[in-house]
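Possible regression after last week's pipeline update?

I re-ran a chain I had predicted before the update to compare outputs. Posting the input and the new output here so someone can diff against the archived version. Not blocking, just want to make sure nothing changed silently.
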Amino acid sequence: ISRVVKRRSSISIGQFALLIALTVGMHLLHELSHALTAVVFGEHGSMGTNTVRYYNGIGTTALIWVTAAGPIVTVLLALLAFNWRSKLGTSVLFIAFAQRAMAAGMSLNHANDEARLSQLLGLGYWTLFAVTVTLTATLFIIRFRERKLGWKWLVVNWLAFSIGITLMVFADNVLPRWQF
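New output (post-update):
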């Protein structure tokens, strides 16, 4: 007698809140990496939930490393999550991909991390976005297909990501900034 095992496709409010918190946490780690790298170079400024500002002119070497720090941390988180082989790990991969893809979209109006870094290194505006978005998308798609996650999982993760990112963007002008 063969049994058909049906996957549980529902999600609890706690699990959904965890996905939002994961998005917020990853976003804050991204911004914090910019700020901490600036501190290493002796720079002073402030960090909000969505931006890092510098008080004085920042040298080119420092600017390259400070700009690179956020995407490097995001890609490292994706590489670590790729080895988890769990739904949560796949969510981290989705968030990393969505963050870098969204940043690329935002760069149509204003250069974001990879665009600024590509320009600083003389690589062309979209080169590093092509690398980070392709890498995070590939890792995500591999795990998404391997785990046979469906469109409902994707919609839930997209909604949680959207809420988390929206909170970070709006909180940037509302919450106090960390002075460094």
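Follow-up from reviewer: compared with the archived run. The chain is about 65% helix and 5% strand. Marking as no regression found.
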